[in-house]
Amino acid sequence: MSTKKVPQRQCIGCGEMKNKKEMIRILKTPEGEFTLDATGRKNGRGAYLCPSVECFRNAVKGKGLERSFKMAIPKEVYETLEKEMEHLE
């Protein structure tokens, strides 16, 4: 029997490869809004983060989100995403 391949994604905060289901997806919708996608199935461009505020802060500091989405991200977006991350912990 062959084993099923588990999808892996890289955290934009710490750079570790982890299982897709263990991570949180930050989504940029086609309308240009940024949200957290807990299901990982919504339409749009996504970037993955470990479920910790520390990794989120590393991604902000290292401009990981800006590199993933290839655009400048307003400070308000970072603030709302950080509040959403704190609610998940």
**Sheet bearing the most strands, described?**
3 strands, antiparallel
Morphology: globular
- Calculate the mean pLDDT score and round it: 90
Count of distinct strands: 5
* Backbone CA Rg: 13 Å
Lateral strand order in the biggest sheet: 4-3-5
The share of residues in extended strands comes to: 15-25%
What is the H-and-E element order?
EEEEEHHH
Number of helices: 3
Helicity range: 25-40%
Could you tell me how far the N terminus lies from the C terminus, measured between alpha carbons in angstroms?
A: 38 Å
Task: Catalogue the unreliable spans.
Answer: none
Protein architecture, described:
The chain starts with 7 loop residues before the first strand and ends with a helix. Strands 4-3-5 form a 3-stranded antiparallel beta sheet. The chain has 89 residues and is α+β, with helices and mostly antiparallel strands. The radius of gyration is 13 Å and the shape is globular. It is built from 3 helices and 5 strands. β1 and β2 form a beta hairpin. The model has no long low-confidence stretch (mean pLDDT 90).
Task: Please supply descriptive tags for the structure shown above.
3 helices; two-stranded antiparallel sheet; 89 residues; alpha+beta
Annotate the secondary structure layout:
Elements: E1 8-10, E2 17-19, E3 24-28, E4 34-37, E5 45-49, H1 53-61, H2 64-69, H3 75-88
Antiparallel strand pairs: 1-2, 3-4, 3-5
Helix pairs in contact: 1-3
Outline of this structure?
With 89 residues, the chain is of the alpha+beta class. It has helices at 53-61, 64-69, 75-88, and strands at 8-10, 17-19, 24-28, 34-37, 45-49. Helix 1 (53-61) packs antiparallel against helix 3.
